Amino acid sequence: MNAAQKRAAKRARRPTYWTPRKLVDPDTGEEVGALVPAHPIDRRLARERKLREGVEYRIEIKKARNAKFHRLAHAIGALLVEHVDGFEGLDAHDAIKRVQRESGVCCEEVEIDIPGMGKLLAKQAESIAFDEMTPERFEQFFEGITKYIDKTYAPNLLEDVRTEYHQMVAGERG
After folding, report:
1. Which of 128, 153, 151 is nearest to 138 (CA)?
2. Which end of the chain has fewer CB atoms at under 10 Å, N or C?
3. Are 164 and 79 within 8 A, CB to CB?
4. Could you give the CA distance from residue 22 to residue 6 in angstroms, rounded to a whole number?
5. Is 112 within 8 Å of 119 (Cβ atoms)?
């Protein structure tokens, strides 16, 4: 499978987001519940997948995770990149994943066999992608990394940056 085929296969598995709406059925004139694409990107993905009216589809429905918490985690990552030595050159996501691995929050220990050296235990961070982590697990992740940041990095931040960090976190916890 070449790179273009791999990208297409990954896109085909990408979840789309839909919102329940009350609409009028053009055939009967009756008001019905319908799922409609939530965003323009979801409409585009539905077209790319050639979803057609009148065709029956099997779907799995999951309540979407709150995007503001995902954005907040990445805002904290950006704050780390901007203000903590050793994080420069990372993007916000990579900073959050680094803190996740350092703290061990939502990580799995995996054993790697290194020929000639033996076995090594490593921490593999769980994906925080919307379709990979439940809202409850994301809350556990967020609580864990912020406690770790509080203990490890916050004491070394300048007062105004530390205040900004605590306001970001407290605003979502309170």
Report:
1. 128
2. C
3. yes
4. 37
5. yes
Secondary structure of residue 67 in the 3-state scheme: helix
- CA-nearest of 40, 2, 3 to 19 is 40
Distance CA(106)–CA(140), nearest Å, equals 8
Helix (H) or strand (E) holding 120: strand 118-125
Residue 158's pLDDT is: 80
Neighbours of 166 (CB within 10 A): 14
Query: In this predicted model, what pLDDT tens digit does every residue of 48-75 receive, in sequence order?
Result: 888 888 899 888 887 777 777 788 888 8
Q: How many residues does the chain have?
A: 174
Residue 100, amino acid: Q
* CA gyration radius, the chain: 21
Residue 51 corresponds to which tokens in the numbers above? 């979803």
Q: What is the pTM of this model?
A: 0.62
Q: Which residues touch 19 (CB under 8 Å, ≥6 apart)?
A: 35, 36, 37, 38
In the predicted model, is pLDDT for residue 141 greater than 90? Answer: yes
Domains of the chain by residue range: 3-48, 67-173
Q: Which residue has the tokens 């070394």?
A: 156
Question: For residue 132, what is the DSSP state?
Answer: T
Q: Write out pLDDT tens, residues 97-115.
A: 999 999 999 999 889 998 9
